[in-house]
Amino acid sequence: MIDLSELTMIVDAYTQEWRPRATRELDNFRRRSTDEDAITAAALAKLPSGKRHPHQYRVPRAALNESRRRLIDNIELLKRATSFDELIELVERLSGSIPGIGELTVYDTALRI
Fold this sequence. Notes:
- By secondary structure, this protein is an all-alpha fold.
- It has one domain (32-112).
- It has helices spanning 4-30, 35-43, 61-73, 75-79, 84-95, 103-112.
- Helix 2 (35-43) runs antiparallel to helix 6.
- The longest helix has 27 residues, at 4-30.
- The protein is globular.
């Protein structure tokens, strides 16, 4: 069994290795010129390279496009969210029923928005 100090070392190493990349990735979504552009990139899981995020590789393109459409159609509602919990609930309500859109895609989309 791993003791607390070993676990702390593992978490610290993981954080040091991956945090800079994750920060750059999220900064890409923050720097979008319009809210619509940010929501589009988030819903389509589009990375700065233009490729799809690996978490969403297996999600059908049509499902991501439908999610994007629903989110853009409700952009004013999304802009009124005052917390991440509220935002993720909205993304779930708007996109969660789309076949192929699961919990990870809902979470990732809300995080990117």
